[in-house]
Amino acid sequence: MEKKLLKRIEGLRRKLNKFGHTRKLIDSEVVEVSQQLDCLLNEYYKMSSYQQLSFW
Question: Is 50 exposed, middle or buried (0-12, 13-18, 19+ CB in 10 A)?
């Protein structure tokens, strides 16, 4: 699951980086992809925090 999530994060990061070179940062698609990336990053951090806590 973690690898799949990391692949999705990397894909959105690349897409956002490409948009950053070709569109304005207030473009609706740029904002949407940025929000999607934020959600996935939050999910990843929650998952990794949980794994660290369950180790102890």
Answer: exposed
Q: Find the CATH number of the domain harbouring 44.
A: 4.10.280
Q: Which domain holds residue 22?
A: 2-55
Question: What are 26-46's pLDDT values in tens digits?
Answer: 999 999 999 999 999 999 999
Domain count, the chain: 1
Residue with tokens 């207030």: 26
Place of tokens 């698609």: 29
- Its pTM surpasses 0.90: no
